[in-house]
Amino acid sequence: IVSKQRNGPTGTVRLTFLGEYTRFESFVRDFDDRGF
Predict the structure, then answer these.
(1) What is the rounded distance in angstroms from the CA atom of residue 27 to the CA atom of residue 16?
(2) Nearest CA among 35, 11, 13, 15 for reference residue 26
(3) How far apart are CA 14 and CA 24, in angstroms?
(4) Is the pLDDT of residue 35 over 60?
(5) CA distance to 13, 14, 18, 23, 33, per residue, from 26 (Å)
(6) Rg (the chain; Cα; Å)
(7) How far lies 36's CA from each of 1, 5, 28, in Å?
(8) What pTM does this model have?
(9) What is the C-alpha separation between 8 and 27, in angstroms, rounded?
(10) Which region holds residue 10: left if phi is over 0, alpha if psi is between -120 and 50, else beta?
(11) Which is nearest to 16 in space by CA: 2, 29, 4?
């Protein structure tokens, strides 16, 4: 659940969903198979 302060600004957050772990992490554009 994501919430915000009632009178605060809205914005966009880029996330990646990891279905295997049922979690979200920060979006990383350049990801390779070694995990770097």
Answers:
(1) 5
(2) 15
(3) 10
(4) no
(5) 8, 7, 11, 10, 17
(6) 14
(7) 29, 35, 10
(8) 0.48
(9) 23
(10) beta
(11) 29
What tens digit of pLDDT does each residue of 14-28 get? 999 999 999 999 998
- Its sign, for the CA torsion 23, 29, 33, 36, is negative
- State residue 36's pLDDT score: 53
Instruction: Note the pLDDT of residue 29.
Output: 80
Q: How far is CA 25 from CA 5, 8, 22, 30, in A?
A: 22, 23, 10, 14
